[in-house]
Amino acid sequence: MTIGPTGTTTHSAPAGPMCISAKPALSDIFAPDDEESARRRNAGARRVPAERTLLIHFTPRSGSSWLGSLLDATGCLGMGLELFNPNFMPQIARHFGARTLTEYVEMARRFPVRKGSLSFEITSHQLHAVFDDPDQFFAAFADAASVWLIREDIVAQAVSLTKMVQTQVGHAANSDAETRRRTEADFAYDRSAIERWLKHILAAERRTEDYLRAYRIAPLRLSYERITTIPPRQLVELMANWCRYPDLPDDAPLSSRHEKIGTAQNLDYAERFRRENRGFLAKVEAERRSWLDRLDDPGQGLPKG
């Protein structure tokens, strides 16, 4: 197997639906075998399947929601959904009429497609939780243009994730000013929780790197810090070029409903955690160094080679 020019493997995607097995624990999340499900599957079968797929591997609090909303806003680069988040799959499966993971994947190639483009986001934890065999996932999306989105400052990322879990507020788009004020007041410093979520993020990074190496995928490597320093239009053009979308409209609306909720409090907690955990963080930084060294510069366009 060899690598294609946009982070894909050069073998083609399956010509028809392949059997894809979900983890046994998820057997009850799919749609019932009834007339409504059949109607939805039939409607999906009449839709033209995606001509191109943009697959975004990510870790939580890395800017993935912001990026996904930008893709959605173009109207032509898919919708940037978390299609394989177990928390969202029951509702999506009912919308698809999908009784099995095989049908779910097949309908995912059709229902959320925009102008021939499918885009979706997935963490390695989600992939591991849903697919009984990762070989089946990577075979099903062998022709995808892959992106790997992380956050360079993993401590700030862990603080942000801890805050989201504690307060149940993830993005400014989903909350008002009063809610955000209460969030700030309710977010207490918790060293053990920040460490736990940092290890959760690190485990996701480690597993994704293992997947990319095992399946010989060379993704476009991006970070939260780098994509938020360039104009949204430039970022979307990069995504369009990476997945080979031919003509991004000049007037494509490029705004996001998502705004970060990080505050001075987040910065204070991150700095405190760094002071209290120097030895632990030195080991984390050593493990991540080679991953960070391979990040691409989105301001320079597509990587060479």
From TrEMBL:
Keywords: Transferase. This is LPS sulfotransferase NodH. The lineage of its organism: Bacteria, Pseudomonadati, Pseudomonadota, Alphaproteobacteria, Rhodobacterales. GO terms for molecular function: transferase activity. Transmembrane segments: none annotated. SUPFAM superfamilies: P-loop containing nucleoside triphosphate hydrolases. InterPro entries: P-loop_NTPase, Sulfotransferase_Stf0_dom. Residues 133-276 form the Sulphotransferase Stf0 domain.
